[in-house]
Amino acid sequence: MDQTADSAVRPRHDFSRLINPRAVAVVGASSDPSRIGGHPLKLLTEYGYQGKVYPVNPRHQEIKGLACYPDLAAVPKPCDVALIALSAQHVPEIIGQCGAAGIPFAIVLSAGFSEVGADGKALQEKLIAAARASGVRLIGPNCLGLLNLKDNVRNGFGGTLQLSTLIPGPFAMVTQSGGFGFGVVAIAAYYGVGFNYAISTGNEADISMLELAEYFLERSEVEAVVVFMEGVTDGRRLIAAGERALALGKPIMVWKVGNTDVGRQAAASHTARMTAGYELYQAAFRRGGFIEIRDIDDLIDALKAFRARRLPRSNRTGVITLSGGAGVLLADRCIEHGLELPPLADATASEIRQFVVAFASVANPVDATANGYNDNFASYNRLIGTVLADPGIDQIIARAPRGSAVTVWAQGLIEVARATDKPVLINWPTAPDDHAEVMQLLEQNGIPCIPTPGRTVHALAALNRFAQKKRAFGQRPKQPASRLVVKQQLDLPREAATLGEHRSKQILKAYGIPAVAETLLSADAVAKLEHAPLPYPLVVKIESPDIPHKTEAGVVRLDIRSLDELKTAARDIINAARNHNKNARIDGILLQEMAGGLEVIVGAVNDRYFGPVVVFGLGGVFTELRKDVTQNFAPFDVSVAKEMIAEIKGSALLHGYRGGPALDVDALADTLSRVSLLIADHADRIAEIDINPLFVQPAGQGVIAADALIVLK
């Protein structure tokens, strides 16, 4: 079942003339190189750009030795990009002129649009209308432009763009923060990691970060895309981009910021309180070919690892050092990051014993001891090669030696690494400028060198996460799974409303989701009962759309075992309901059978940016406290539902934990899939679904919903 059918197939725009234009018109050009209209001229004329540069300013005949044009209509053709450095109010008109002049792209450096309030937002809407009417695609406004270091195009503004230390490389950066993102490119260059392209997207009035990321993924010279994001407005497109990254085998390094001050919805359901913006981004990142980045070191280290173009076949890792303490530390970090350190094969251990000193350790990690210094590390390279040849090892971390023979060692290691397709990462044991030429030699030959044990393992773990996702993606069924239930027509109120529990369960039952047996009676009918309509023990509840959280309101009574208890409970909960909310509508008394099993919560929300999302976690009083929940994007099939179930930390409770019975995981997965179909089929009306608790019973006995709430738009 395709979760992203609405956005997986999209027309892709060709941005080749944007990133490598034949000519650039600088609108608002200035003779002062420190001004926003003057600095781009310096960048376009002094850093090797091979295209034409056309200053546009009616007050000048010539700027910087270049003919200056009064308007865009006078600019020679062809011209592919207009770089606009004018006050905001003039920009929409200029975009119209771009269209009339046949200029297909604009980069709007100007600020003063949606970022400054209502008036700016109105001006940005005018800008968008001008772009659509003229057919011009634009970057910005409120951006710093773009870098194309591969073709010497520095088309923008800012101090970072004029650095001579920037270097090209097989990566592309798309950033919603131009100043910060370009700064990252500069820092990466210092450590030898180059970017062919970097684009600041600003307010994204037209061209979005996601559209550019999709474009760069498809370019053959780009091996990974880095995105620095505050947020997106099309979550399904983000998911589709992640899946495309897996199909192409190119990671998207995603640096998501603005995660801690996320306002949660003031909604009725528990489910809505468990889904904030960042949780949904994390769910999208888990599904696709994303590697989440939290700092510049993370990014540089991971890019070094991916630049070697080797993905491991599994997480089985060999650790080789000349220091026992370093080996233990590396081993600890590997286990913490989910990397396995299996014992070496007997044949491998026997071979190693033939050439290492007697007191060396041939376990994993392997400690060659300082004895390797005695033969210019020839035996150390032999050791690395032998471990790499072990069929039970799919990647290694080796700690680099130091000393006068380190260059000879590096040359030998390069030959060892060439004989295998397994990743080899070097933990650099000293300052980066200590034998810096050796580090450079290794990295030029596809052997990443990373300082500190923790950072080295973190980079290798990133490589493994992507490789594991890619393998799983390749194993996904190519054809969508059949639906468990066809789309049902639901009799829903036309207006926005919170439905009572009884009505909510009827909707669940329409999608085959089992619920407890129950009957709804008026208070008078309960008072006149001569016998219970259902077998004891019973649960007695208020039925009211205005009291969604019944336990907190004190309007639930459990384990009712006689008619007198039943009638007393009914009177008590009516009084409690009136005390809780004197204006609450009371639709009756709900009598239902008692149910048992492991409590879980299953719910769904219709998110503004990601669309319908299903949430699953353990139930009970710790649901929101523990936050042991997972999310996925509806609709999905049973196989995806089982992956969700396995993701929560408490999933062991479903499989016979500490002698308990194994529970009905198949029925639980079936229900999760049905909830996903319900919310997806009726996303135009259903805002939230909350099933809490859903009781999971022993294997073969199914699941049953004891309480439910549906909120309509």
Descriptive overview:
It is flat, with a radius of gyration of 31 Å. α11 (324-336) runs parallel beside α16 (453-475) and α13 packs parallel to α14 (406-418). With 713 residues, the protein is of the alpha/beta class. Mean pLDDT is 92; it is low at 1-9 and 262-275. The protein has a seven-stranded mixed β-sheet with strand order 9-8-11-10-12-13-14, sandwiched between helices. Strands 20, 25, 26, 27, 28, 29 and 30 form a seven-stranded antiparallel β-sheet that branches. The protein has four domains: 16-233, NAD(P)-binding Rossmann-like Domain (Rossmann fold); 311-475, Succinyl-CoA synthetase domains (Rossmann fold), CATH 3.40.50.261; 517-593, Dna Ligase, domain 1, CATH 3.30.1490; 598-712, 2-Layer Sandwich (D-amino Acid Aminotransferase, Chain A, domain 1). The protein contains 23 helices and 30 strands.
